[in-house]
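To: structure desk
From: M.T.
Subject: fold request, one chain
Message: Could you run this one when you get a chance? Sequence is below, nothing fancy, just the single chain.
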Amino acid sequence: MAELSERELAVLALEARQWRTAGAKERAVREELDLSATRYYQLLNGLLDRQEALAHDPVLINRLRRIREAKRAER
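Reply: Done. Structure tokens follow.
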């Protein structure tokens, strides 16, 4: 099993944070990771399908998988 890169770990860490104000997360994505919001969510979505991410933070990954599946079911 391959290991997660530093950038992938940073994406997961940022996603695990609690956000109190609108736009704070997007601002942190730009400032801390130097990514557009679109690229951030592309990376995050890819991580949800990786066993390495699940092994790193199973609670976060399973929660995000449930959210993703619920949104797909709404469509």
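Reply (cont.): DSSP finds five helices and no strands in the chain. Let me know if you need anything else for the meeting.
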